[in-house]
Amino acid sequence: MTGGFMWTTGLVLLAVCVKVAVWASDGGAVFIREYTLIRRDHLPEEPLHDVSQKPEDPNSRTARSEEDRDTLWDAWGSWSECSRTCGGGASYSLRRCLSSKTCEGQNIKYRTCSNVDCPPDAGDFRAQQCSAHADVHYQGQYHEWLPVYNDPENPCTLKCKAKGLGLVVELAPKVLDGTRCYTESLDMCISGVCQIVGCDHELGSTVKEDNCGVCNGDGSSCRLVRGHYKSQHASGKTEDTIVVIPYKSRHVRLVLKGPDHLYVESKTLEGVKDELVLDKTGQYHLENTTLDFQKLSDKEVLRITGPLGADLTVKVQFASGADSVVQYIYYQPIIHRWRETDFFPCSVTCGGGYQLTSAECFDLRSGRVVVDQYCHYYPENVKPKPKLQECNMEPCLASDGYKQIMPYDLYHPLPRWESSPWTACSTSCGGGIQSRSVSCVEEDMQGVITLTEEWKCLYSPKTAILQPCNTFDCPTWLAQEWSPCTVTCGQGLRYRVVLCIDHRGLHAGGCNPTTKPHIKEECLVTVPCYKSIDTLPVEAKPVWHKQAIELEEEISVTEEPTFIPGRWQPCSRTCGAGTQQRTVKCQVLLSFSQTVADLPDDECEGVKPATSQPCYRTPCSGVLGKGKEREKEEEVEEERGPTPEREELHDWEYEGFTECSESCGGGVQEAVVICLNKQTREAADQSLCVSTRRPPQLLQDCKAQPCPPRWETGEWSSCSATCGVGLMTRTVACTHRPSRDSNRTRVLRDEDCQNPKPSPVQACNRFDCPPMWDTGDWRQCSQSCSGGYQSRQVLCKQRLADGSILELPDTFCPSKSPANQQPCAKQECPPQWVTTGWSQCSVTCGKGIQRLQAVCRKQGEDGGHSIVEPENCSLMAQPTRIRPCSLRLCENSVKPYPTILAQRKVYIQWRKGKKLHLVVGGYAYLFPWTTVVLRCPTRHFRKSHIRWLKEGKPLFSLSHLSITSLGYLKIQQVRASDAGIYTCVAGQAKEHFVLQIIGSKQKLSVPEPWLLTGGQQKVGLPGVASTGERSQELPIPLNQYDNIVEHLLELKSSLQDEEDIADKTHSSEKNRSTLRVEKTNSELSSLLVLTTDTHRLDEIMHNLSEGLGGPRGEQLIAQLLSELTMTQGETNESTLHPPESAESSTQGPLLYKPNIQAHASRPRNPVIIQRPRKVGVVPSPEMIVHVGLPVLLQKPIASLELRCEALGSPEPSLTWTKNGEVLQYNSRVGLLPTGSLRIQSPSKVDEGLYTCTARNSLGSTSLTSLLHMTGGKGRNCVQGNSMGASDPVCSERINGSQSAELCHGQACPLRWRVDPWSPCSSSCGGGSQTRSVRCMKGPEGRSREVESHHCLGMGRRPSDTRLCNLLPCARWTTTHWGLCHGQCVGPSLATQHRHVYCQDTNATKVPSRMCSGLQRPSSLKNCSTEACALHWRVGPWTQCTATCGRHGFQSRQVTCTHRRTGKATREHHCMWRPRPPSWQRCNILSCGRAGECQDSTRYCEKVRQLELCPLPQFKSRCCHSCRNT
Question: Are 588 and 713 in contact (CB under 8 A)?
């Protein structure tokens, strides 16, 4: 405390200082330290010990508790009103001590109240307290105070900073109760002390919200989502979706690094969509959600605290350049949660039964029950166990009691669905069904399962009892092409392969044998055969040179024991009949180790394949020769005779083809030959078929198509991480080999190979890492030498299988934690120079110097410093600084020369005013009868000694002219005689001021005493003898700026007369232009004085070589006027009321400097500048009239130019209409490059109202001129008073004659003339415009068209076509207006909203930028509603808390109430009108002389009764009452 009271609203500080905080046991109230707060209306005015007064109303207090009865305290009083109406405030309760002695404990306790969020537009509570001091002087000035937040030392003091200044002031030692200590916490200030407040809004509570927004939650209601995204510019898309963040998500953070840009789309639960473009740094609002966006040079950052009010889709708009990378993180709510159901019906109707609950999956967004799979999706969701309870415990009538129901944890398991195995499918292919039975069963404690009622199992879905099966197509026979005939002449055989193809396109069994096509048939070659000496049959001749080989299907090892045959060994004989052997093993695949184990044969099911078979390669060559051997074999065969087993029962058949030898580029496949049992159609041992009848080997071409480019992959690399998900990489390239025989492989582009491309990366080691210590970098050392410390961050973290990093408590990591602090900079510090102070002044009077002294200091090992010899610091430069000093003025010392702080300004009075304050050094152009105060700010000179001269002669006080004691020159109601040159003289210094009176034709001249020889204007020093004196040049030229000021005033009068001219225009053209003119005139009329620097006018004069009359001069004058009007607010206020410190500044006030930069960037509505010109006959053949004035032509003229000059930002475009219709341009009527209209040889057909319209994005304005021909009626071509120029022949003659008269030599130049662009051929989607481009010869107004090649030397021919309206055909579309229940904006006025979106011609919603060129309809409008018939109701002021001093204040109640019902509502509904203040300062009077002893507060009697007088802060305020204590 600072020796005084801090009074809060309706509270009075009295009290006791307590050293500890005591937590109350009732109602969550808290005792806190600091002074006790007692509400005034709870404090009796009578002394407590006066028993003669009436007792207090017992109803205002609660009954005394047992604890209070054992002490001397009375019962607690009722709770006070809350200190705030929203946002969390404080309320208190009081009790009184019933003894004259001191009671132990506190007489006040607190609790929180009004814990509802304030509306967004209610304003900050701390800011309101700062703004309450805006009407209080601080250091002699008023300031707009802004709050200072998060003060680390004392957050509960009211510290505010002045807006626009770096001034920070503590305006009050305490903030009001309920003010937040810090912006990001709920802790609040109560009686100047920061108290902890939890998310449950309880004082002293440390409960906090989890990341899901649940107070004291465990984080299980949401999940952390991390991810990243990389843009693919090569995809050809212009935008892409990064992530869809669902409704109610929190703590969103998204960072984009790269050239692309973010934007956001929203979709509410009702399906309403919206879009938000993020184009600059700032706060955005979308669907009741605040988005903080930061746009930096190389990245964009989006933060959303949440919770989200809708589903947000974050998208990226591609820009040129490298691909961007986006990282995001947010907490997603788990919207599907288990919800417990009610109990099911009881299992029995009497005698004691049980009933169960179940759990259902509940969608929090839609409020509906959904299938359980939604809840099973979240691992965090644990389905609650069913609850069991007893029911229907009444004994049954025929029973002797009831059975005991055991507790749930000892009871038998829950009933469940039990299903039998599926039956066999009704068909093997082509689609069938299979069924099973499903029943509800119970299992008792002994494991006995019995059937029960189905309702007991309804807590889980009943499983299906039917399902389809074998839905694939049945296999069919497929016959291949016939082979060539086996003979070259006569009758032979031909063969083909017949395959059984299943639904997968594979050769398999299952086809009907009776429908199989035959594989062999006879064939006849129409060539006669001659008998051969060979005895072998024709069929047995080997036509193909390669025999068919037996192909067997390879059997692979599985997890079931299977017989695995090996390869056949070579035949035991190289010729003749032999045998082949192979191994057959019973093997199984061990899935865990992926190894093959051998088992005994009895572990495998089925018949073991044969281990040997006969073989025959070639006949053996004997003594009898090959032919004889064959004959012998045939004889043996004939002796044996035919056997049914060999000839009839078994025969050779083809059984499919082997796989193609190549996958592409051309290969071969061979027909497989088997020995088939004709009856069973099963394969038999090859020895049962006659070897001589074996069909020949069949070969066919396959895969003849050329090989396409294919993906070639390399070996996987090792995993990048040993845990927590790493990556393995490999090379993937698109390659092509031209032919099968080529060994050269060519690498192609990825687009040449078929998708999908094999992945070049894959995840590996996807399991959680063990918790490990994560150490950060060492921070900077605390000292650069002599030993310091540096620290680093050491955290226990765990990398999870999804790549995220989880921060864990330190106990989860190994016990030994890495060091987080270490010593550093152990080297010894070198000695250094240290400054100790300034030396004494070198002189005792007058001006001297002081030197900065320094010593050589060294730091020791213990951290202390010692001074050493200066030689030790010789390597370092000793600091040398000198400053001037002056103790006192010496006797007979020369005083400094006085100076005048002149300002080089030009003041132009814009409208009449009462009084103007001006400063010497410049010019003033003022209206008559204006009062002027001319100031002469000086230094080193007493203002009362200032002298004033006029025209070089001393100036004395007159009836309307006086010189004040401060040296001001005051002229009451200036008149023409007051014009002249005024001079301020301060000692040897002097400054001049030129005063001109507007409306006077007088030109000022230099007074004769000032003129010197040589024709130069020189000014001597008035009042000083001129003999031998030095003269100086007149610093201010007298009439230099008269011409500029005259043009400014002329431009002003044209703007003010514009409204009068508009009255003469056509009624249909008047309304819009008049409104714009009035708005412009209102801006100009609000100005009092235009103020500019002389160097600005010098710059204009320098830039004008041709004078102010030309177009360039008029443009510069108009620009100057626009610049000067920008400073109207500051200029007027400061000219009328000059700042206090103006004289002490060496520079002029800031208000006099035109803000040219601000003018260039500030958007302004267009305005057309009107120039006054005389109406009537102009002798020149070319007439120029500014639009807005009527044009009356009595004689024919060569050309008429209607000039239209417009100002605005952005620059307005100009369009012309005639009689309310778009003006049609032709060879005579056309536009100039400046936008002005030129009419050559105007005639009767050109009469009418011509309107120039200036338009930009902010609005438009118009001015109209009437063109009227007043000449004679004839049509002759005589240039007299008659007007016959409407005839084309006359026009040509007049133009020809004038051209002959007025055009000579170089005055007839060649030039391109362009007509205005035609209307666009299409309003959107891309159209074109055309215009006429002609080569013209002759001066303006009398030119004629010539061939185009004449103008080729005049520059490139302008284009005659261009594209236009390139934007797509899209338009703004709106929804219906919503209900009128928005924010109140006025009496009985609220707002209603509608959604505005951009859609194309197909009614498809497109991004808003597609409609950026169109006027966007409003999405908000006012509407009338009785709910907003609200007003502020104020109560009476309370009595002031002090009778004098600066600490007194009084309060009143301010509520927002309904006018008709009087019912109070929340304050933000009345915020459309300023809220009346609820407290104010009062009795701000001096408390008397310092020696007087008075009471300055009306509570001094209570202070004396409570024996608080010994405390100094109370004794000073209650001096009179405490004088005898």
Answer: no
